[in-house]
Amino acid sequence: MIRRCVDPLRAALTGVTLEARLDAAFFQKEILGWLDRHGIEFAVKVPMWNWLGIKQAINSARYRHHHSGTLSSRRFSVFIDSWGQLLELVVIRHKISDKVAAKKYVQLDLPTPDDGIFEYSVLYTNKPLRADHLWEFYNGRAAMEHQIAELKGEFGFDAIPTHHYQGNSAYQHLSGLAYNLVRNFQVDTRLARVRPRTVSRTNLFSFSSLATLRFEWIAAAGRLVNRSGAQVLKLCNNARRRERFQSIAYNL
Question: Model-level pTM?
Fold first, then answer.
């Protein structure tokens, strides 16, 4: 699946560096080795499996580099026997609460305090990034959750309308096409605003959701009236909506 995604991107975007952000399920020697050999920069979450020896390495850390009041990091090397390989990992300690009695999470064997004040993450990467920028880059993958939520909520992607695979497949393709059409429309008509470049590497543009577009200029109150024997659609004289319509028409 990864190869099928990479090959057309390589053909379409010659000379562009490809980047991947992967959760812990992709922490596999074959996958990471393939990405590295093909020049794809990646950051992957490292699972806290006991056989990796990561928890012991974190517990033995005597110092950390403090990037801010809530974020600190530590680099360390772990030799993974089953891989026969030495990996340099980055452990991120994120302060999530100042309350001593804060909610406890499931990372029970990590360094004390394990009282809900700190949250630990371990990342492995082939990117030359400092630890706090690596943390921001990896967390940028969460932007896709908003896109998935809109795809499901506004475009009905999570519906199963028929009892047939072909029908459901066609429905999901149409849902995806509609989503892309609305995004493309915003770029073409300059409704989408260019976002500032950040380490987190999210969208190039700031898009409005379909719900916002519908509210702002699709669902406009109006009425059909007869004028000189012709039917005319009259809208209320809203200056901002008129400006938006004229701008869209001009860019189209």
Answer: 0.75
